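Subject: sequence -> structure tokens, single chain

Hey, anyone have a minute? Need the predicted structure for the following. Not urgent.
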Amino acid sequence: MKATEVPAVAGAYLFEPTPHADERGFFCRTFDADVFRSVGLDPNAFLQDSLSRSVQGVLRGLHLRSGAGEAKLVRCSYGRIFDVVVDLRPESPTYRGRAFFELSDETQATLYIPAGCAHGFQALTGTADTSYRIDRPHDPAEDVTIAFDDPELAIPWPFPVTSMSQRDREAPSLAEVLKSKES
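Reply:
Had a minute. Here:
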């Protein structure tokens, strides 16, 4: 497994496994505590695993958590997704930096997203299963959502949105979210 730092978002990493393929298919390790430790991450910090299933065009995000934030590991275990990370940590050298990835079941790559970054994705295939591993229990009172189509972010979503939650549809702009954090 190889860990690669994401230049546009300080502290984010892409973990790419080494698949072993044969006539049966493939096998790969999707999590390796030693590799995580090698880049300064505590593999024991992750407390909850979740899974979402989406169909092509579904958009989820942009989400982040207030308070201490939430670090997460994201992997597309089936299908393909267009994944987005936005650095919203004012003290970060990559503040407001954006990074885009295609995560898929073919690569089984895992993206580490540091606390304080917004995250969203769009399903690119008929079915896309996305696995999340987060570092603290979910508290809905800390949920923050930013408009996926905020012109300031100019995210190049690959498809028109076919479906999204009401919360995501009604999300405020980045400027509104940042202003409310200052209050």
